[in-house]
Amino acid sequence: MLLRLTKIFQFEMAHALPGYDGACRHIHGHSFTLEVTVRGRPLNQPGHPKNGMVVDFKDIKSIVNEAFVKKYDHALVLPDSVSQEVLASLESEFGHVIVLPVQPTCEHLIGICVNSLRHALPDGVELWRVKLSETATSYACWHLSDE
Fold first, then answer.
1. Is the pTM of this model over 0.90?
2. What domains are defined for the chain?
Protein backbone atom coordinates (compact mmCIF):
# COMPACT_ATOMS: atom_id res chain seq x y z
CA MET A 1 0.00 0.00 0.00
CA LEU A 2 1.39 3.40 -1.01
CA LEU A 3 0.95 6.02 1.72
CA ARG A 4 1.68 9.69 2.24
CA LEU A 5 2.94 11.21 5.49
CA THR A 6 3.01 14.92 6.31
CA LYS A 7 5.06 16.76 8.93
CA ILE A 8 4.43 20.45 9.66
CA PHE A 9 7.11 22.95 10.68
CA GLN A 10 7.01 26.58 11.75
CA PHE A 11 9.76 29.17 11.59
CA GLU A 12 10.25 32.92 11.55
CA MET A 13 12.03 34.66 8.70
CA ALA A 14 12.44 38.16 7.34
CA HIS A 15 13.01 39.14 3.74
CA ALA A 16 12.73 42.04 1.33
CA LEU A 17 11.88 42.10 -2.36
CA PRO A 18 13.91 44.93 -3.88
CA GLY A 19 12.30 46.34 -6.99
CA TYR A 20 8.85 45.06 -6.06
CA ASP A 21 6.06 47.58 -6.64
CA GLY A 22 4.49 47.24 -3.20
CA ALA A 23 5.17 47.23 0.53
CA CYS A 24 7.08 43.93 0.38
CA ARG A 25 10.07 45.79 -1.09
CA HIS A 26 10.77 46.79 2.54
CA ILE A 27 12.32 44.40 5.06
CA HIS A 28 9.50 42.56 6.79
CA GLY A 29 8.96 39.22 8.50
CA HIS A 30 6.61 36.28 8.39
CA SER A 31 5.70 33.34 10.58
CA PHE A 32 6.15 30.63 7.96
CA THR A 33 4.47 27.23 8.02
CA LEU A 34 6.12 24.47 6.01
CA GLU A 35 4.27 21.24 5.24
CA VAL A 36 6.37 18.40 3.88
CA THR A 37 4.63 15.31 2.52
CA VAL A 38 6.52 12.17 1.60
CA ARG A 39 5.32 9.01 -0.10
CA GLY A 40 6.30 5.39 0.33
CA ARG A 41 5.30 1.93 1.41
CA PRO A 42 5.26 0.84 5.05
CA LEU A 43 8.06 -1.49 6.07
CA ASN A 44 6.87 -5.06 6.41
CA GLN A 45 9.53 -6.63 8.61
CA PRO A 46 8.07 -8.03 11.84
CA GLY A 47 10.48 -7.46 14.70
CA HIS A 48 12.12 -4.44 13.03
CA PRO A 49 11.76 -1.30 15.19
CA LYS A 50 10.32 0.63 12.21
CA ASN A 51 7.92 -2.14 11.12
CA GLY A 52 4.72 -0.65 9.74
CA MET A 53 6.27 2.78 9.08
CA VAL A 54 6.98 4.49 5.76
CA VAL A 55 9.51 6.58 7.67
CA ASP A 56 9.66 7.62 11.30
CA PHE A 57 8.15 11.10 11.81
CA LYS A 58 11.18 11.98 13.96
CA ASP A 59 13.42 11.19 10.97
CA ILE A 60 11.38 13.50 8.73
CA LYS A 61 11.66 16.18 11.42
CA SER A 62 15.42 15.80 11.63
CA ILE A 63 15.94 15.79 7.85
CA VAL A 64 13.77 18.85 7.19
CA ASN A 65 15.21 20.80 10.11
CA GLU A 66 18.79 20.12 9.01
CA ALA A 67 18.21 20.66 5.29
CA PHE A 68 16.08 23.79 5.47
CA VAL A 69 14.35 25.05 8.61
CA LYS A 70 17.39 25.65 10.85
CA LYS A 71 19.11 27.57 8.07
CA TYR A 72 16.21 29.96 7.44
CA ASP A 73 14.72 30.29 10.93
CA HIS A 74 15.24 33.83 12.25
CA ALA A 75 17.24 34.81 9.18
CA LEU A 76 17.04 37.89 7.00
CA VAL A 77 16.96 36.70 3.38
CA LEU A 78 17.91 39.06 0.56
CA PRO A 79 18.79 38.74 -3.13
CA ASP A 80 22.36 39.19 -4.30
CA SER A 81 21.26 42.35 -6.12
CA VAL A 82 21.57 44.19 -2.78
CA SER A 83 24.87 46.09 -2.63
CA GLN A 84 27.80 44.45 -0.86
CA GLU A 85 28.08 47.48 1.45
CA VAL A 86 24.48 47.11 2.61
CA LEU A 87 24.84 43.35 3.03
CA ALA A 88 28.06 43.75 5.03
CA SER A 89 26.41 46.31 7.29
CA LEU A 90 23.35 44.11 7.88
CA GLU A 91 25.51 41.05 8.55
CA SER A 92 27.72 42.89 11.04
CA GLU A 93 24.72 44.39 12.83
CA PHE A 94 22.30 41.47 12.78
CA GLY A 95 24.36 38.37 11.96
CA HIS A 96 22.06 35.89 10.27
CA VAL A 97 21.73 37.21 6.72
CA ILE A 98 21.29 34.80 3.81
CA VAL A 99 21.97 36.02 0.29
CA LEU A 100 20.27 34.21 -2.59
CA PRO A 101 20.92 34.45 -6.33
CA VAL A 102 17.16 35.01 -6.77
CA GLN A 103 14.46 37.24 -5.33
CA PRO A 104 13.47 35.63 -1.98
CA THR A 105 9.81 35.12 -2.84
CA CYS A 106 7.76 32.29 -1.40
CA GLU A 107 7.95 30.67 -4.85
CA HIS A 108 11.75 30.68 -4.95
CA LEU A 109 12.02 29.60 -1.31
CA ILE A 110 9.85 26.56 -1.93
CA GLY A 111 12.08 25.61 -4.88
CA ILE A 112 15.14 25.84 -2.66
CA CYS A 113 13.40 23.70 -0.04
CA VAL A 114 12.39 21.04 -2.57
CA ASN A 115 15.91 20.85 -3.99
CA SER A 116 17.44 20.52 -0.53
CA LEU A 117 15.04 17.74 0.54
CA ARG A 118 14.78 15.60 -2.58
CA HIS A 119 18.00 13.67 -2.07
CA ALA A 120 18.08 13.83 1.72
CA LEU A 121 15.28 11.31 2.20
CA PRO A 122 15.96 7.62 2.85
CA ASP A 123 15.67 5.02 0.10
CA GLY A 124 12.09 4.14 -0.70
CA VAL A 125 10.78 7.51 0.54
CA GLU A 126 9.90 10.10 -2.09
CA LEU A 127 9.20 13.82 -1.68
CA TRP A 128 5.61 14.18 -2.86
CA ARG A 129 4.39 17.65 -1.83
CA VAL A 130 5.75 20.79 -0.17
CA LYS A 131 3.58 23.71 0.91
CA LEU A 132 5.13 26.93 2.22
CA SER A 133 2.76 29.46 3.80
CA GLU A 134 4.09 32.93 4.49
CA THR A 135 0.78 34.09 5.99
CA ALA A 136 -2.39 32.32 7.10
CA THR A 137 -3.94 32.99 3.69
CA SER A 138 -0.98 32.96 1.25
CA TYR A 139 1.17 30.01 0.24
CA ALA A 140 3.09 28.34 -2.55
CA CYS A 141 2.78 24.63 -3.19
CA TRP A 142 5.00 22.18 -5.10
CA HIS A 143 3.73 18.76 -6.09
CA LEU A 144 5.71 15.91 -7.64
CA SER A 145 2.99 15.23 -10.21
CA ASP A 146 3.41 18.74 -11.66
CA GLU A 147 6.97 18.05 -12.83
1. yes
2. 3-146 (3.30.479.10)
